[in-house]
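Hey team,

Sharing the non-specific serine/threonine protein kinase run so nobody has to redo it. Sequence (958 residues) first:
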Amino acid sequence: MVFVAALNVLLTLTHGDKLLISQNLLQIKSSFVNTNGVLNDWTPESSICSWGGLSCSQDQTHVISLNLSNQGLSGSISPLLGRLIFLQKLDLSSNSLSGPIPPELGMLKNLEELLLYSNSLSGGVPREIGLLKELKVLRIGNNLLSGEIPRSIGNCTNLEVLGLASCEFNGSLPKEVGNLRQLKMLNLQGNDFRGPIPEEMCGCGELQNFSAANNGFEGGLPPSISKLFSLRLLNLANNSLSGYIPVELGGLFNLKYLNLLGNNFTGEVPTELNKLSLLETLDLSKNSLSGQLKISTYHLKNLQYLVLSDNALMGSIPSNFCIGSSNLRHLYLSGNQFSGGVLSGIINCSSLVELDLSNNGFNGSIPSEVDSLTNLAALALHNNSLTGSIPPQIGNVSNLEVLSLFHNSLTGEIPVEIGRLERLNLLSLYENQMLGPIPIELTNCSSLQGIDFFGNHFTGPIPPTMGNLKNLVFLQLRQNELSGPIPASLGYCEGLEELALADNKLSGPLPPTFGLLSHLSLVTLYNNSLEGPIPDSLFGLKNLSIINFSHNRFTGTIAPLVSSGNLVKLDLTNNSFSGEIPAMLATSTTLTRLRLGHNRLIGKIPPFIGQYTELDFLDLSFNDFNGEIPIELSNCRQLTHLLLNQNRLGGAVPSWVGRLKQLGELDLSCNSLNGEIPIELGSCSSLIKLSIHDNRLSGPIPPEIGNLTSLNVLALQRNNLSGPIPLAMRSLNKLYELRLSENSLSGPIPPELGQLTELQVMLDLSKNSLSGEIPPSIGDLEKLERLNLSDNRLEGEVPTTLGGLTSLHRLNLSDNVLRGGIPRSLSRFPPESFLGNVGLCGYPLGPCSSASEETGKLSEAATAGIVVAIVFTSTVVCLVLIYVMLKMWCNWREVSVSSSDGEVLEERRESGCDKRGNNNDGYVGLGSSPLQQKKKMRSSTETCVFDVNMKVGSVESV
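Structure output:
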């Protein structure tokens, strides 16, 4: 009924009822929400043939064209357009129309062009499109259209252009497309078509451009495609096509553009492609092609772009690759397995503008004939096995803009002739073995924007004329052996954005001209010998986001470095900065890393750090901060590392630490914290290292510590902790270091500790009040290297299972109440490992004597021997103790005289911590002497073992 009613309307329109046409057009106008005034002349008072965007027939009776392209229209397409049955062209492209394509458009029997591309239309393509028998151009791409293409599209047999690109179409391409024998252009790219390319495509004998890139087409490329003799462009890039490239493609003699990149083609590149004499672009990159290079520019005289990158091609470049006249301008062979001389077969390609042979196995040196490539603008030879030096003739390649030679084995110096390359834009030599000075002639290359010399052996100073490079944006000189001062002229490179001078031997102060680098966003100077205060001129650098000045000798305030307000990473560790953390640092709310450790900073930890909600690394260790840990830090929920050790912080360990769910390392050691360990710490399920040693903590170890199942290191030594070792510790099955020494822990050693089979570095329970026997299960800790149970009240025999600890190289069981014979398997350890247990005997101590059968008492001779031994041992111990005390007194006196902060150092020595982070293990190792054991040298646990600095190529780690 609806169709009959529409037909009646059409009959009326056929007789030229202009009034009705006018009414329909005005209703169509109302469907556009925003006309931007372009349809203001669509009024009943004027003739419709004078309305903007409309064209009428010659007799002024019918509307034959409606063109409202690129008029900023929004709203929807009105179904009433289907009543304009004389329309030959409908163009609503490049607007903001939404909604579906009305099926009523199928009534436009005379329509030849339907252009709806570049809108926001949605839904599917109506099957009524197949009713448009006269349609020649259908372009509906760059919309939100989806679903499958209707099979009825094959009825539009007059179609010459079918544009369906950049939508969300899916399913397979209907084989009825093969009915479109007049089709010249088919664009399907940027959809989600699946399945094979239909064999029936060969029916499109007039097809010139076929682009189906960026879809999911599968299977092989049908050989029947070779029947499309009119093809000029074939683009099937980034699909899932597989199998061999059909040799039949060699029959497409009109082909100028062939792009098959990003598929799964295998086998060799067919030599038949050399028959495509009109070919200008050939891209077979990112497949799995193998074999040797068989493409010849001798046959492909019109070839300008040859891209074979990222395959498995091998062998050397054929010597006849560029014989005769060649128009090849762009050659990309990177990411293959080519070998041999790097420019063999290419030297004669004099028309080359871009040459990329990177990521292969080319070897040998760069030939001096490189200057025969007179038109070369970009040369990429990185990631090969090149040796030798850069030839001086490189200076003759006067058009060179990009020279990329990084990650080879090049040696020798940078040739001074490189200074002739006035157009050079990028020079990348990183990760080679080059040496010598950076030639001052390099600063003649006034077009340079990027220099990367990372990871070589360059020596001498940075050229004092660096300021000549006014266009320099990126300067990477990290990890060389450069010395001397940073040249003041560097400040005149006013466009500089990234400056990396780390890992060198630079010295002297930072030049005040740095304040001129207003575009500077990254600066890394770490691991040098730079010194002095930061110039006040740096207050003006408002674009700084990444700063790493660590491991230098800078002094004074850090204030000039923190005025940016855009800081993301700030690392000033291991310097001699002093004063408080400046309040202006509060403006950098985007900070993710703040490292100020190992300086001389004072005052309280600023509460404003709590506003850094993206902060993941906070290191304030080894300073002189005091006061309590501010509660505002609880807002830093992204923290993975919190290092506040080696300060003078007081108060309790805050319970809010339990809210930091991302925390992987917490180090509060060597402070003056008191109170109990909060049970909330058990909520930090990501914690890998927990160090709270050398404080004044008391109370029991909370069982909630057992919830930290990711923990590798637990260091609670040198506190006032009491009570038993909680059984819940058996859950810490990833623990490789456990230190609970020098507390007041009591009760037995839990046998469950034997379940911590990953313990490797140490198990230290010394200097407590532990009692009972040593659990035999300790012998299950097969990876354990150090075991210290000394200075407790342990009794019973030494378990023979300890002999199974084959990795053990330090053992201390001294000063307990152990008895019986020492297991033979432990006799490899020195006597000091067992001293102070009067009931122990056997090697390496004295032999075990048998008891008297009648009285069970020792003989008089044995008793006398023991008395003599005790007197002798006591005398030796007293003498050693007197010596050690005198030595310690001398050391303390020396420190108190030489230290500018002697009172603080003295206090830290008494608590077991000093500025170097040393503390006592109390172990006796294999082959150690009594003197070594008495010195009790301490190993460091204060080093952050979870912060890894990484480099990838020339990327700077901070």
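The radius of gyration is 41 Å.

Ping me if you want the raw files.
A.
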